[in-house]
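Appendix B. Raw example, untouched.
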Amino acid sequence: MRKFKNIILPLAVILGLLFHEYLDKFGMVVPYLIFCMLFITYCDLHVKDLKMSGFHISMLLFQIVTSIGLYMIINPFNTIVAQGVLITIIVPTATAAVVVAGMLGANIGTMTTYTLLSNLIMAVICPLVFSHIGYNGSFSFLHTLGLIFAKIFPLLVLPLLLALVLKRISPNSAKFIVKHNGISLYLWAISLTIAIGKAINYIVLQNESQHKIIIFMAIAAILICVLQFTVGRLIGKKYGDVVAGGQAIGQKNTILAIWMAQTFLNPLSSIVPAIYIICQNLFNGYQIWQKNR
């Protein structure tokens, strides 16, 4: 079983690449899988562990400053690549990052706090940014804000509230769930396989005329993946949690990023977060393999 755990994430990436055409039809399943994963993880969370610190402020500043700064640098050369880089960096932490960070030994309270903060704050920041650079100008700030909140609230807050209620009314049930939290890895592998399949299918469907820009976007995705995990781990090291730092900045809510890019920016810019899915999860697979060793 341990050997299987070592290869489960690379296997998910390979299956997503091979069967993308079929997996694209199962995209509606992913939110439910993530909801279950978070609920399982939050059953082991204590409210007193939710504390804001300099760690969280440093992470948020990095996301906002770096995303806008790189957009301004790249935009004069290629607007689509610039938008793809912007959305991939500014998008909040993946809800599943709490689960992965927990597997790798990070502090769950630290990760949960940052996941909540980044999703709530970026839900307000993103509409402001889109109003200045957006490809689709038909959405007002409040409309955009409402659409983004509708996407993140059910997956972000509801599993947390449900877990806290269960711990209060039935602590033994919560302990039973925590005891069997290993299932989260398999739920994540399934959701990852589907997400990668959808991303690859979208890339494959692009016209041949777009292949050159797709190469540039692939290079951009790889570089910002290295940048975010490296800077995140450096910040995390300063505050005593290297893993939490890396996952907080490096593991992005790429499904949300793709949706936002296709809704508010040039749809082609969504290829950057689509390729980022593969990059971040290959690195996550490597980290889990190292951890299991």
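End of appendix B.
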